[in-house]
Amino acid sequence: MKLATTTADFSSYAQTPAAALELCGKSPFRYVDLNLPHRYMGEDWERITHDAGETAARLGLTLIQAHAGDFLSGGDPTLRIPELTRAVRACGKLGIPQIVVHAQWDTATPYPAGMEQFFTYNKGLYELLFPVMEETGVKVLIENSCEANMGPACYFMTGREMVDFLDFVGHPLLGAVWDTGHANCRGNRQYEDLTALRGVLDGVHIHDNDGRCDGHTAPFMGIMDWDSVLRGLIDTDYKGYFTFECDNFPMRGGGWPYLRRNDEPETARLQNPSLELKLMAENYLYETGKYLLSQYGAFEA
């Protein structure tokens, strides 16, 4: 497996995807997941997409995956289909083969009793993206979550539930990304989840946490059973990238899900790690990923 990271790592240091890619270029990572939240997919999305592509090409970075915003955003009841459609089109223009789009949840639909309703509702939402997916050939990936994030709302919590939804929808351009940190919050046996996803697993989000909160921190900074994850990927014959999503390592002052204490905001200097420290953390991530994969003979430069 080849190592990848996300431009979301630099969301506190860069105002555009191109600027975030400039910072990724200072790290050892050559493969990158492009973060495309709704704020980048407005009327100027084509310029933003062009600039990102030019920057990646100049720096020798390969864009292997993307991450879009949600169907709804910020409590706004309006479906964000225009932004999501543009995000898929952006991937098509940049040669990115797949993009993560979270399913939509509703706290009035409880887990697991509301699974049938959740499946039916989300099938209708993803169908709205089928035309642009088919036009561009870009695959859309669903993702698992956890009660720590979703509260009582129904969601995909296991690999088996994700497979069941993919079978229910039955579209060849709908696949799955497995998030290790979300599963760790639930105490899932990740080997079982990953092997359940055999044949439909197109990507991973690799990060660690303390088992209570979705910390998005680096491996060995939490309680993850990394052997379970690595054995699951290998025994599933996973062919994708080992993509980090450790955007909260080191922890930002205002970064969800934690808030750093700030008793005197007028004079605070130490709320956020410096860019220099963040770049050092990216080197740590790369070396840690190399170690994890090398222990199972799976590292590819």
Q: Can you characterise this structure?
A:
The protein has 301 residues and is of the alpha/beta class. It has one domain: Divalent-metal-dependent TIM barrel enzymes (TIM Barrel, Alpha-Beta Barrel). Helices cover 39% and strands 13% of the residues. An 8-stranded parallel sheet has the order 7-6-5-4-3-2-1-8. Helix 1 links the parallel strand 1 and strand 2. It starts with a strand and ends in a 7-residue tail after the last helix.
Features:
TIM Barrel, 8 strands, alpha/beta, 301 residues
Main sheet specs: 8 strands, parallel
Q: Using the alpha-carbon principal axes, give the shape.
A: globular
* Rg estimate, integer Å: 18 Å
Number of domains: 1
Query: Under CATH, the topology is which?
Result: TIM Barrel
| CATH level-four homologous superfamily name | Divalent-metal-dependent TIM barrel enzymes
Return the string of H and E elements: EHEHEHEHHEHHEHHEHEH
Mean pLDDT: 97
User: Which structural class do the helices and strands define?
Assistant: alpha/beta
- The percentage helix is 25-40%
Proportion of β residues? Answer: 5-15%
Number of discrete helical segments: 11
Tell me what the CATH architecture is. Answer: Alpha-Beta Barrel
Give the SSE layout.
Blueprint: E1 3-6, H1 17-24, E2 31-36, H2 45-59, E3 62-68, H3 81-94, E4 98-100, H4 115-127, H5 130-136, E5 139-143, H6 147-150, H7 159-169, E6 174-179, H8 180-186, H9 190-196, E7 201-205, H10 226-235, E8 242-243, H11 275-294
Parallel strand pairs: 1-2, 1-8, 2-3, 3-4, 4-5, 5-6, 6-7
Helix pairs in contact: 1-2, 2-3, 9-10
